[in-house]
Amino acid sequence: MAIPLQAPDLGVTRRRSRPGERVVVGLLLLCAVVSILVTVGIVAVLASEAARFFAEVPIFEFLTGTRWAPLGGRIEAGDFGVLPLLNGSLMIAAGALLVGVPLGLATAIYLSEYARPRVRGVVKPVLEVLAGIPTVVVGFFALNFITPTLLRPVFGEDRVFIFNAAAGAIAVGLMILPIIASISEDAMRSVPHALREAAFGMGATKRVVSLRVVVPAALSGIAASVILGVSRAVGETMAVTIAAGNTPNLTTNFFESIQTLTAYIAQTVGGEAAAGSVRYQSLFAVGATLFVITLAMNLLSIRLVRRFRQAYQ
């Protein structure tokens, strides 16, 4: 008598989720939704208030004007050209890159390729501590040490203002140094050792392997760290306000006082602008400009990472 064979059940049995797991998943979903709603709310507020400002001030005048002097609540009482503020932010970002990128990359190369594990275990936490120093402290350090001790004795007291863009750029460069160094070092250490061994097998020196093998292989992470550092430099507020001053000058002289987009926001929210006035609404126009710049840098960072990304098996 033949015994019928029962086909085995090859389907994947679903495991019932526990009530605690459903609660955790729900909380995670709630956090994701809240973050999205907060972002949408910020964009909505900026857009609505900036639209009221641009109803009074033509956007072409705002983007091309060379004088920023919003002195009162009426449009006739001041000039609203954002170029001086934008110029100050770009000067700080460019100067910070000149300081932070060489020092950060050199530190990353040393930690990744030359430093012993014990040295790396000491230097990297120190970098993390440097990243955690309050920006107000860095600003006062620039005002009381960088300007009178480093800049004025070298370039002359008559040429270097007390508040100047160079001090602000150096201070911000020191602030973005840990970001560039830490992310770049992580990217370099993720490069497979097989690439290094192959280069050493062909007779390459340690310097050649570091600069011509490891750095190009980790270029996507290095580019992301630099873009992130630029975003931090453009968005820095207190250190720049203390060190560089609050003078909206359209200049290329790093030894003069300037004002950045963030410094103007910090200065105006102190109670000088009446709610509903044109100067009050200019805060949101400047904030929207800063938001667009930061968004563009983040999109550029994503594109660079995808462009130079290396996948290793």
**What's the architecture of the domain at 84-269 and 286-308 in CATH terms?**
Orthogonal Bundle
Distance between the termini: 56 Å
- Taken from the alpha-carbon principal axes, the silhouette is globular
User: What is the spatial order of strands in the main beta sheet?
Assistant: 1-2
The count of strands amounts to: 2
Report the order of strands and helices. Answer: HHEEHHHHHHHHHH
Strand content: under 5%
CATH-assigned fold name of the domain at 84-269 and 286-308: MetI-like fold
> Could you name the CATH class of the domain at 84-269 and 286-308?
Mainly Alpha
Q: Which structural class best describes the helix and strand composition?
A: mainly alpha
Q: What Rg is obtained from the alpha carbons, in whole angstroms?
A: 26 Å
Largest sheet: 2 strands, antiparallel
Tally the helices: what do you get? 12
Question: What is the helical fraction, as a range of percent?
Answer: over 70%
Low-confidence stretches: none
Looking at CATH, the homologous superfamily of the domain at 84-269 and 286-308 is: MetI-like
Name the average pLDDT.
83
